[in-house]
Amino acid sequence: MNIQFARIIDRQLFRELALNLLGSVAVVAVVFYIGGLSTQFDRRAFEGLAMSTVLRHMGLMMLTTSFLLVPLTVMATCLFTYGRFAADGEFDATRTSGIPPFKTLMPALAIGALAMGALAVLQDTIIPDARYAGRKITVDGFEQVTNIFLRNDRKLALRGFIFTWSAAHQDSNGDLVLDNVLLIQYNKQTGLPSATTSAARARPSVDPDSDILTLELEDLRREESNSVVQRFARLTQVVDLDSLWNRKLVPRAPADLSYASLLAEMGRGAGQLRAAEVSAEWWFRVTAAIAAFLAAAIGAPVGVLLRLRNRAITFIVGLGIIALIFFPLLATSKLLAEKGTVSASTAMAIPIGALLIIATALYRKAARG
């Protein structure tokens, strides 16, 4: 009878854990994506970038933090599921019926094992590639767009055009304004000037995805190659930047490498990369994956002890545990490994050992009621 009852409880808990996990994934993704995006709009680095580029950059940033978001999601799921399970008196009922507390926690460990496997797969190529792509966007886009019109020489000279201005400043709306601009456009086949445009002011914007410079010109004079002169109060001029985006070579750091590449670097003494950093990155990923499993082992007994039923509160508790315990341990251990203070394997064993001790102590306390 107890065996049949235990199986029913296991199926019920696993089903609720799976459903709550989907909910937690959605909540964490939306909260962190919108929260991260909202902090970027006042950054000067985003001026002139297409919204699609900004959104893609934020998505890549969120993916690279999966080593924190996955344990947080698992932690919040187990806290909520087992908190409600205990608050409804079902945990006490299972103990009264003779089912060992550890048996009741098995579904949480199963979810933790799935999360560990998922994070291990993500950390092979998906997260490193996302981190590398995000760094390339930063170097290729943000840094150059920010500084294009703040150059000391106040001049852009490419094969298709020469563009100069006397000064750059921001208007009352925070938009960039260039004063006394001169645009000389050339025929790419003949190399001869095709048009010369001078304007009192210009409001530039750059789309790095298409390498297009758009100029909103005000109070301008335009002279064509056939000597035809035109005057406009306002005109929009689109210029192909062509080779302006002289893409910087962005080398891959240890965090941008796959498992196979890390092992290869370790095998040849880390090659061009510091051996300590390569080894630290390898063991960091192993530790992060195991920590996703231990997040479930900690979240379940904490849920039983706190008996929380409010999803928002469980999310805050889980975030507190991750931010105050998990992340500091992981960051400190990786720093020690990178500096060579201790070996990477020893350094990364510290957070795992600490989390394992915490999980064991919490389980014993929850089992005693």
Structure description:
- The chain has 369 residues and is α+β, with helices and mostly antiparallel strands.
- The protein has two domains: 2-145 and 251-368, no CATH class; 159-240, no CATH class.
- Helices cover 60% and strands 17% of the residues.
- It has nine helices and seven strands.
- It has helices at 2-38, 51-64, 66-87, 90-96, 101-148, 259-267, 275-306, 311-339, 344-368, and strands at 155-157, 161-164, 167-170, 176-186, 193-207, 212-224, 229-240.
- Strands 1, 2, 3, 4, 5, 6 and 7 form a seven-stranded antiparallel sheet that branches.
- Helix 2 packs antiparallel against helix 5 and helix 6 (259-267) crosses helix 7.
- The longest helix has 48 residues, at 101-148.
- The protein is elongated and about 100 Å long.
- Residues 243-248 have low confidence and may be disordered.
Secondary structural class: alpha+beta
Helix content: 55-70%
Number of E-state strands:
7
- Element string (H = helix, E = strand): HHHHHEEEEEEEHHHH
Average residue-wise pLDDT: 80
Beta-strand content estimate: 15-25%
Q: Enumerate how many helices there are, as a single number.
A: 9
Q: What is the distance, rounded to the nearest whole angstrom, between the alpha carbons of the first and last residues?
A: 24 Å
**What is the overall shape?**
elongated
User: What does the largest sheet look like?
Assistant: 7 strands, antiparallel
Rg, nearest Å: 29 Å
The parts where pLDDT drops under 50 for at least 5 residues are 243-248
Number of domains: 2
